[in-house]
Design a protein that fits this description.
Blueprint lengths: L7 E6 L3 H13 L5 E4 L16 E2 L10 H19 L4 E3 L2 E5 L5 H13 L4 E5 L3 H4 L7 E5 L3 E3 L1 H12 L2 E3 L4 E7 L3 E6 L4 E9 L5 H8 L5 E13 L8 E4 L11 E4 L5 E4 L3 E2 L13 H9 L1 H22 L1 H9 L10 E14 L9 E5 L2 E6 L8 H19 L2
Parallel strand pairs: 1-2, 1-12, 2-9, 5-14, 12-20
Antiparallel strand pairs: 3-8, 4-8, 5-7, 6-7, 10-11, 11-12, 13-16, 13-17, 13-18, 14-15, 15-16, 19-20
The structure holds flavin-adenine dinucleotide.
């Protein structure tokens, strides 16, 4: 394809926080690069980016040396600066991780160790000291991490879109991709528009595996959507800041937590239940084709076989508010069932390997004239600025290579 027949240099599929931070980073690293972002929804942050806990994670949970650890620690500090610079609601609140059972104590101590290995300052508390931070919270022991914060990721994404200088198109769902290694990519939208680019970046979140397959690349994993349901606390005065349980190391999910957000409301959640559609924000939303594809993936069955007991507990708490409230009372005994008011849910794009392994770290794969982001779970919003830079670096390097 002749140089003049490209509509842009890079087409980014997906206008969530990862796609937009990639567009922003390309604009900074290589000014003059023409970037088009195609987003299927009519606005920014309609999926994971706008439906999360809004926490700027410190990086305490992640294996030292993992992409998650590296990018969360750097990303948290950068996110606070970005929010301050662009006047986006945010606060550095710190958070408590609380052990309520004796068997959690070794895991709590392991987290202290991990936090220190990741360069964080962590304060250990006995049960009585918890009240210094959270008078209504009870536990056997806790740790306090000072660098955790909160922000409005939807607002961050909108600001990234403006500051990127990219051509961001809404209502542009990618339905077909034609890639010729010697001639770039042509992308067709549901509205019939064609965008020709030298290379593509796949940041399609809940649909990233399908976009990889449309490009002709086997992702080696499939997205299994896990819904996270939230309640709003009707008596927000019970919680001052952020309170988390000790996470189960078998899962990349952090457990139901209490988060005072930038709107000053307190959110309780999210749990983790299988969603019956990629964008299945409640039990009524079922997409038989998407559900069929999830069930056809051998990894889904392996996962169910391995973790059915945990899954059954999560399902029970999803279907029964008293059961959910009982779980919350382990941390916050004063909560009554009627204090929990249902609010909007989110769905996590969790990559699962063929053998049922939940992909824990960020997963970015390069292919000719394509970079695919195949797993960008929490804390990808926190880490979005360094992740965007890394994706931009790989995109520009791949482009230089393929046009050599
Ligand atoms: C319940 C929950 C709680 C979380 N809490 C936190 C937290 O507190 N802190 C934190 O750091 N992270 C958190 N996360 C994780 C964080 O929200 C995500 O990691 C991050 O938002 C991922 O961004 P993304 O851009 O990859 O995905 P998305 O925001 O989902 O964006 C992908 C975009 O691609 C678009 N798209 C898909 N297919 C197509 C197509 N064919 N054509 C065009 N566009 C397409 C979608 O419409 C979507 O807008 C949480 C996530 C969930 C679900």
């Amino acid at each position: 394809m002749a140089a003049g027949s490209y509509d842009c240099d890079v087409v980014v599929i997906g206008g969530g926080i990862v796609g937009l931070s990639t567009a922003y980073a390309i604009g900074r690293a290589a000014p003059g690069t023409r970037v088009t972002v195609l987003e299927k929804e009519q606005g920014t942050a309609r999926h994971q980016t706008g439906r999360n806990s809004g926490v700027i994670h410190s990086g305490i949970y992640y294996r030292p040396g993992s992409l998650k650890a590296r990018y969360a620690v750097a990303g948290a500090a950068e996110m606070v600066k970005f929010c301050a610079e662009y006047d986006i609601p945010h606060a550095v609140t710190g958070k408590l991780i609380v052990a309520t059972e004796r068997e959690e104590l070794p895991r709590l101590h392991a987290l202290v160790q991990r936090g220190r290995e990741n360069g964080l300052s962590v304060r250990e508390l006995c049960g009585a000291q918890i009240a210094e931070y959270e008078p209504e919270v009870q536990g056997l022991a806790a740790i306090h991490v000072g660098t955790t914060g909160i922000c409005d990721y939807g607002a961050v994404a909108r600001r990234l879109a403006e500051a990127s200088g990219a051509d961001v198109r809404h209502g542009a769902e990618v339905v077909r991709i034609d890639r010729r290694p010697d001639r770039g990519v042509a992308v067709l939208t549901a509205a019939g528009d064609i965008v020709r680019a030298r290379t593509l970046v796949n940041c399609a979140g809940l649909h990233c595996d399908r976009i990889a397959l449309l490009t002709g690349d086997e992702p080696g994993a499939r997205i299994v959507p896990f819904r996270g349901e939230y309640y709003e606390l009707a008596r927000p005065e019970l919680v001052r800041g952020l309170v988390y349980p000790v996470p189960d190391p078998a899962f990349p999910f952090l457990g139901v937590h209490l988060t005072r957000g930038t709107d000053d409301g307190v959110h309780v959640g999210p749990n983790a239940v299988p969603a019956l559609a990629r964008e299945g924000y409640d039990w009524r939303t079922v997409r038989p084709r998407e559900l069929g594809a999830t069930l056809a993936w051998p990894g889904s069955w392996q996962l169910a076989r391995r973790h059915w007991r945990y899954g059954a507990g999560e399902l029970h708490r999803s279907l029964s508010k008293p059961a959910f409230a009982r779980a919350v009372r382990r941390l916050l005994p004063a909560v009554r069932d009627e204090d929990l008011v249902p609010t909007a849910a989110g769905v996590r794009a969790q990559a699962v390997l063929r053998d049922g392994t939940l992909v824990d770290d960020f997963l970015i794969r390069e292919a000719p004239r394509a970079v695919h982001v195949l797993n960008a779970p929490s804390p990808a919003a926190t880490a979005s600025l360094p992740i965007g830079r890394e994706i931009a670096r790989r995109t520009l390097a791949g482009l230089a290579e393929s046009e050599r």
